[in-house]
TrEMBL record:
InterPro entries: AB_hydrolase_fold, Peptidase_S10. It comes from Thlaspi arvense. Residues 1-21 form the signal peptide. Keywords: Disulfide bond, Glycoprotein, Signal. Belongs to the peptidase S10 family. Pfam families: Peptidase_S10. This is Uncharacterized protein.
Amino acid sequence: MSFILYLLILLLLVLSHHVDSGSIVKFLPGFDGPLPFELETGYIGVGDEDQLQMFYYFIKSENNPQEDPLLLWLTGGPTCSSLFALLFENGPLALKFEVYNGSIPSLISTTYSWTKMANIIFLDQPVGAGFSYSRTPLVDIISDTGEVKILYEFLQKWLSKHPQFFSNPFYVTGDSYSGKIVPPLVQEISKGNYICCKPLINLQGYILGNPITDIEFERNYNIPHAHGMALISDELYESMKRICKGNYFGNTECLRLTEVYQKCTNKLNPYHILLPVCDQTSPNCFLYNYFLLSKWANDERVREALHVHNGSIGEWRRCNYDVIPYNTDIQSTVPYHMNNSINGLRSLIFSGDHDTVVPFISTQAWIRSLNYSIIDDWRPWMINNQIAGYTRTYANKMTFATVKASLLGGGHTAEYKPNETFVMFQRWISGHPL
C-alpha cells in the first residue's frame, strides 16, 4: 500500500511540474467570450537550478499546427516584453483604442495575425522583461552573448516539453534590438544541430524587422537618411560629408555641424518621423494604447488568467530599461549573418522607411557588405495594386523589403503597418515572391 501511495505522490509531482511549465488559457479579461485560438502560457527554467524563470505565450497556428512553421519571437529593447508584439504587431489580439475609465481595457480580434499560418512562441527576454524573473538575485550582468546561451537552453527545454513540434520548420524572428540576438542565436542552433544526442531543431531561417546590427554604424547613417527625408539642408549635408568623413558623432571637427543637425531633428519622433511626439497618457496621442497596455498587464485578474506566479514581479513594464543592467558585448552581427548564409538558411529583413533609429539605408549597407549577387533586383511589392514597399532578393536566400509610408507609414516596428507586414510574411513564409 505504501508503495502505491509513493507512486501516486510521484505521479502528482510529475503532473504538477507539467502544469507549471505550461497552462492553457481559454479566457482573458477584457475579451468577450472564449479565445478563438489556442493560447498556452508558462515558464521554462534555465540556468543553474532553473534560477531564471522565462515566461512565454505560445499560440498555435489557426491553420495546421502539426505542419505549419514554428516561430520564436523576440521583442527588442533590450528588455521589452513580448506582450507588446502579441498585442501590437503580429498577434491575434489587440487593445481597443478607447478612453480609460478605470475598468479593464478591452481586447479585440485582429485580421493580421501571423498565427493564421504559423505557431508562435512569444518570449519575455531577457530575465526581468515582462513576466520573466529570477528566483535569486542576479550575480552576472546580462549580456548579448550570455542571452544567446540562455535562449538556446530555453528552446531545447521548451521543445522537450512540446516534442510534437520538433519536426516543424523552425524560424527565429523579432525586431529592433533582437537584431543583435537573433543572428547569433540562429548560429548557435546550427552548431547545436551538429552535436550528438540532442533532437535536431528543424531550423530553416530567420526574420528581422528594423534590426539593430551595429549601433555606431547605424547612427552614422542617420545623417544621409535625414538628408534624403528633407530634414536637413543640402548645404549642411554637403558640409558634414566633407568635414566629418562618415564619422558624424565621434569627430570633434564635426561637433558644430552635428549640433545644427540635432536642432533640426531632436523634436521628431525617432521611431516614426511622420508621427508627433506626444504624451502616451493622453487619449489624443497615437501611442495611448501603450498606457492602456500597462493598465491591462498590471491588473491582478490578467495575471491570474495568464498564470503568472504570485509575487514574482512588481510593476509590469512594456520595457524595463531602468531596472536591468545590460552589457552590449556584440558590436556587429554582420559576421553572424554571413555564417548563417553559408549554412544555407533563408532570411527576411524588412525596414519601415520612416524609422531613424535603424535607418533603412544602414540596413541596405550591411546587406551589401555581404557581397552576394542580386537574384531579383529592386522593385515595388504590391498589395491590391498599390505599392506597399520595395524589395530585393539575394543569392544567399536573403530577401530585403521596405514597408512604405502612407497614411500612417512604416516605422520602427510592425505595429505601424501590421496589415502590410502580415501580407509580406504570408508570402515569404510560403516561399512566394513578395
